[in-house]
Amino acid sequence: MKTYLAVGIGGVIGSCLRYILSLLFLSDGFSTFPWATLTVNLTGAFLLPFIMFHPAIKVRMHPLIGSALTTGLIGSYTTFSTITVEVVHLFQTTLFLAIIYLLVTIFGGLFCSFLGYRSAQKFAKEEM
């Protein structure tokens, strides 16, 4: 039961952070490029492997906190469903932007995930 509560609390925090970020970009629906969604997904793609693969974080972090951060916070902070809706909308309005957004989301996410992993490894070596 504690794990469910931890994931739920992390989820509330991640959802609120995502909403705040969307307000910062002052997006007026789907009429502009979806910078807020791209930003949350790329930063989430960096943070998740950083947390999961940093040896010091893994050792020191309580499993409940780990579940709250990874599944809860980052899981609710990032979004796949919004990406799909935005890609469909961009395809209907600007094919070029839709393709760019999709490619940057996929390959940028993979690159940020790799950077998160490598950064965790680098910080771990520096701490030794």
Description:
The chain contains six helices and no strands. It has 128 residues and is mainly alpha-helical. It has helices spanning 2-24, 35-53, 55-60, 63-77, 81-93, 95-127.
Task: Sum up the structure in keywords.
128 residues; mainly alpha; 6 helices; 85% helix
In short:
The protein is mainly alpha-helical. Helices cover 85% and strands 0% of the residues. Helix 1 packs parallel to helix 4 (63-77) and helix 2 runs parallel beside helix 6.
Largest beta-sheet details? none
* Bulk shape: globular
Structural class: mainly alpha
User: What is the tally of beta strands?
Assistant: 0
Percent of residues in helices comes to: over 70%
Q: What fraction of the residues are assigned to beta strands by DSSP?
A: under 5%
- Rg result: 16 Å
Low-confidence stretches: none
Q: What is the mean pLDDT?
A: 91
What's the helix count? 6
Sequence of secondary-structure elements: HHHHHH
N- to C-terminal separation?
36 Å
